Amino acid sequence: MESRPPPAKKFKTSQPVCGQRRNNALLQEMEIEQQRRELPIYRARGKLLGQLRQLDTAVIIGETGSGKTTQIPQYLYEASIGRQGIIGITQPRRVAAISLAARVSEEKKTELGTLIGYTVRFEDLTSDKSKIKFLTDGMLLREAIGDPLLRRYSVVILDEAHERTVHTDVLFGIVKAAQKKRKELSKMPLKVLVMSATMDVDLFSQYFDRAPVLYLEGRQHSIQVFYTKESQSDYLHASLVSIFQIHQEAPPSHSILVFLTGQEEIEAMSRTCREIAKHLPQGCAQMSVFPLYASLPHLQQLRVFQLGQKGCRKVILSTNIAETSITIPGIKYVVDTGMVKAKRYTPESGLEVLAVQKVSKAQAWQRAGRAGRQQAGICYRLYTEEEFEKFLNMTVPEIQRCNLASVMLQLLALRIPNILTFDFMSKPSPDAVRAAIEQLELLGAIECKDSQIILTQLGKKMAAFPLEPRFSKFGVRLESSRSNTSNIRQCLAHALFLNAAELQLDGTYATLDTRQPVAIHPSSVLFNCKPSYILYNELLHTSKCYIRDLCVVDPEWLYEAAPEYFGRKLKGVNS
Ligand code: ADP
Ligand code: MG
Fold it and tell me: Ligand 1 pocket: which of 160, 196, 373, 375 to mutate (most atoms <8 Å of CB)?
C-alpha cells in the first residue's frame, strides 16, 4: 500500500505532460499556419480566387515552392469554389500524391482520408467526406473509363503538366471533352486547371481554347546554382566527390538529395557511401543514406520524409521520382547528375527500351527546385553551363516515345468514337499508332472489321486492369501449381509472346519479333545459362541491349499463343 503513489500526486505529475503535449501541438499548428501565410502565393490569394471563380479553364505557372499544389486546392475549398463536387489534383507519381495529401491534411488539421484523401494504384484512402483528393494521373484515367464525364469532380487540377506523362496527355483530351459535354448537357460545370513551374504555356493555352495564363510571382527561398568548370566523364564518381565534399563542410542538419538514374546504380552508390562514411576522420558527422526509386517498397520510400537524427547527415539517392511535387524535409543541397533513365520507342522495331540519357532544362530546374523548399538552398550541377544550354528545353512527351498499346486500349474502353483522331496535344506518330493496333489485335483485345476497331470481351477485361495489355492478358486459373511452374510459364507465354528471344547458333540472343540482338542481363539467374527460348519483361540499353526479368519457355507454347503470328516468325516450329 505504501509503495503506491497517492492519486493526487499522480494527477499532479501527469497534468504538465498533457499540457505540454497540447502546447506543442498548438505551437505546431501555429507554425504551419504561419508557414502557409509566408508562401508567395498567399499574397495573390484574393486576386487568384477572383480569377478562378470566373474561369472555366486556366493555365497556372509559378516557381517551384510558391505554394501551387498545396494551397490552390485549399483556397478553392475555403472560398466554396467547387464544393458541390470533388476537387481532384493529379500527380505523375504515387509518392507525390500520398505525401501531398498527408501535408495538406496536416495543414487543414484533419485526419488523412476524411476531408482530404488520396487514390493511387492498389490504395484508396478517401471516404464519402473527401472533398480534396490527390490522385495519380493513371487513377483518374481509370475513373474516366467508368465515367467519361468525371461527374464526381467539380474541379480537376492537372499538376506538373510539363512532365507530359502519357496518362496526363490522354487526360488533357478527356477533361477537355468532359468539360464541353457537361456544358452541353447543363450538368455541374467542370473547372480545369493546368499547373507547373516549367511549362510551355502557349502550347497549353492554345490547346485549351486559348485559356488565360495566370502567373504567380515570387519564390520563397533563393537557390544558388553551380556548374562544373569541366565536363565530367564519370557522373557517379563526380557525385561521390560532391557528396563527401559537402559532408565535410556543411552542418549535418543540411540534407543532400542526389539525382541518379536507377535502382542498381542507387543501391551500389548507397553501399559505397556507407562504406566510405565508416572510414572518415574523427570529428566528421555520421551519415544515413536513403535510396529512393519507384520499385522500392512503399514504406521504405516514405522513410525519406522522416526527419534525420540529430548530428547525422541524411543523404537521399533518388531517381527522377523526387524531381517534382515533393518536399523532403531538411534538403539544403541538390546534386544533379543531369542524367535520367527514360523510355524510348521505335515502332519499326517494336522495341520500347529504357535508356540513360540527358535530362531536359525543365527537369534540371525542377531538380534544383527541390533545394529551396524550406530554406535557401544550393544546387550543384555535375555538368558545365555549356552542356546545360544544349539540353532540350522541355522533355519529349512520353506519348511520342512509348508503346501505345495501353493508351489505345484505354481510349477504346473510354468509348472514344474514333481513336485515330483523338484530340492529342502532341500527336503520336502514325507508325506507333499502327504498331499498337497490331499488337492489340494479336493479343485478342480488339477486332478490326470494315475499317472499324471493336473492343472484344477479352479487351474489355484487359482494360479494367491497371496494367499494360501484355500483362493483363495473363488474370491464370486459380489452382496450386505446386512445384510445377510450367502452367505459369505457359500462361506467361500467352501474354508475353511478343517479348520472346531465341538463342542463336553463335550463342547470342535475338528477339523473335524484329531479330534485334539482345543479351541476358548480368543480374539475371539465367546469366551464363543458354536456354533456347526466353521471355523478357524489360529491355535496358546501356553498353548493350540487355533483357531482364526472364522466364524460360517452350517454343510450342509461343506458337499456341499466336499461331498466325508465329507461323511467320518461327520457322520449323509449326511444321
Ligand atoms: P509548389 O507546388 O508551388 O512547388 P507546394 O505547394 O508543393 O509548392 O509547397 C509549397 C511549400 O510548402 C514548400 O516549398 C514547403 O515550404 C512547404 N511544404 C510543402 N509540403 C511540405 C511538407 N511535406 N513538409 C514541410 N513543408 C512542406
Ligand atoms: Mg507543386
Answer: 373
